[in-house]
Amino acid sequence: MSREDKGFTTFDLRITEPNKEPAVAPAAIHSMEHLMATWFRNSQVKDDVVYVGPMGCLTGMYIIMTGSYTVEDMRQLTIKCLEWILTQTEVPATTPETCGNYLLHDLPMCHWECRRYLDRLKNYFHSEYTKLQIMLNDGRIFADA
Ligand SMILES: [Zn+2]
Which of 11, 29, 135, 143 gives 24 a disulfide partner, CB atoms 3.0 to 4.6 angstroms apart? Predict the structure, then answer.
């Protein structure tokens, strides 16, 4: 779930099981990105937040932090964040001026995914991190973000 390099810790918040469960719908994860970024950037850890954004495979979110945070710290923060999201009645910053694809939002489906993920974080949490790094046919290296 986390990897440290160059003074930063990347947390992989895996919302669905890759290639076994459906990925999160693009509009739902986009809304989740707006809401999670808003919560983290206004939270008690806001000064250590570097980045909050969705995985390209749409199975989770990345949160990059400075400072020292454990997986358990991030689990507790994410639980608070998701509980806050579930109280929200609109997605922030969804105008053409503030979002690159402002029509691609789905708050009800975002809430559905957040409820499901919250249940997992509270009741079925496990953390494992296997660094993926493979050599491509042309010799270049692919590593997950
Ligand atoms: Zn946006």
Answer: 29
Q: By residue range, what is the domain housing residue 122?
A: 2-143
| Ligand 1 is an ion; residues with CB less than 5 A from it | 99
**Interior angle at CA 85, CA 123 and CA 62, nearest 5:** 75
Strand order in the sheet with 8-14: 2-5, 8-14, 60-65, 49-54
pTM, two decimals, is 0.90
pLDDT at residue 32 is higher than 80: yes
Nearest to 40 by CA among 104, 111, 100, 92: 92
Q: How far is the CA of 104 from the centre of ligand 1 (A)?
A: 8
In whole angstroms, give the CA distance from residue 115 to residue 93: 22
